[in-house]
Amino acid sequence: MSERVDKKGIHTIFEVFGVSLKLGLTSFGGPIAHLAYFQDEYVRRRQWLDERSYADLVALCQFLPGPASSQVGIGIGTLRAGVLGGLVAWLGFTLPSVIALVAFAYLLQGFDMGQADWVHGLKIVAVAIVAQAIISMGQKLTPDRSRITIAIATAALSLMWPTALLQIVLIAASAVAGLWLYRTAERKASVPVDLQMPINKKTGAVFMLMFFVLLIGLPILRGVTAHHLLDVFDSFYRSGALVFGGGHVVLPLLERETVATGWISKEAFLAGYGAAQAVPGPLFTFASYLGAMNGGIRGALVATAAIFLPAFLLVLGALPFWNALRRSPSVQGALMGVNAAVVGILLAAFYNPIWTSAVLSSADFALAAILFAMLYYWKLPPWVIVMIGALGGTGLHVLFH
Q1: How far is CA 27 from CA 3, 35, 37, 170, 281, in A?
Q2: 125 in a domain, yes or no?
């Protein structure tokens, strides 16, 4: 009997991996599109969970820092086949874009990044894509004067004192502001469906403790040892742990950790960010490109594992407690403030390094405006925008130089 159960468990693991790999090969369009693909595959076609349970899981992953679509995939895999199921669900969804971006990193290492016209086109692509992300997030996360004020103040302070520590302080201050500003706000009553998880609260607490131990302990360990891979792991773990609001918000955090420290040039950073829009799967695999540019295959593996590890620990740690947490008005108010700060952090990154590095002439601005219109109004897929941007960068050089 146990042998039959084990065989069934192994079959389920391979099933989860196969389905997630298919999604990893075909899910273009960013986190919102990923969630639509997941709903179609996991809920409508395979009926691994019902609509309400899926909505609850999405709500949890939007609440937590980290890559929301990847966390939803991890949660579904865990619901289906335990912790190992969560691991293979992440692996299948992530692997295709990791391979593509590592290959792109090796391709670029033989180029003079400052002189490649198509690379400049990719930098202009980043302008259009981040502008679209700011507008979409701003409409949803800063719908009133108080939250717009939090966002603008966060952006201004981030630009005047551009440090990673200040970003943490601003996120914490925004949580306090949201808690106070929305302490009396009326919210719709919610009666969520309890998610049946193969993890109890004690195990969840262990995962959550591991998250905080690494977040606090890695910088301390980094300070007393001199090992480059530990530095890489700490930088990418912290970036993955402090991202609220989706994949695009990781951009300023990674820029501080890689460009400001001299690990990678600004040109290479923005070129990779543009290329990351052209591949399916999670935007967080941008870390794989950065790791490969700095340390080859080993650097890519360390950076990828580090940036996604917080997502694992938070999902597995929070799921057993989620139904109680999401009913708390205090938690909801703090989250409203944090989300507003997220828009401000992304707005600051839009100006520096994205705009200041990409828009150097009126022709650059014209190309950025065209790409933005194609993305935001014409609804063309991001990979098409990337291709047009790369060709446009080359065309600008031919016409104006």
Answers
A1: 36, 9, 7, 33, 6
A2: yes
7 burial level (CB within 10 Å; 0-12, 13-18, 19+): exposed
Task: Report yes or no on 24 lying in a domain.
Answer: yes
C-alpha dihedral, 93 to 95 to 99 to 101, nearest 10° = 50
Domain assignment of residue 115, yes or no: no
pTM above the 0.70 mark?
yes
Residue 127 sits in which domain range?
A: 2-110+120-184+193-400
- CB of 284 closer than 8 Å to CB of 271: no
Q: Residue 88 above 90 pLDDT? A: yes
Confidence (pLDDT) at 81: 86
Asked if residue 72 belongs to a domain, the reply is yes
**pLDDT at res. 189:** 44
Rounded Cα distance, 41 and 38, in Å: 5
Q: How many domains does the chain have?
A: 1
- In this prediction, residue 76 carries a pLDDT of 93
Q: pLDDT for 130-181, tens place per residue?
A: 788 788 878 888 999 999 999 999 999 989 987 767 877 888 899 899 989 9
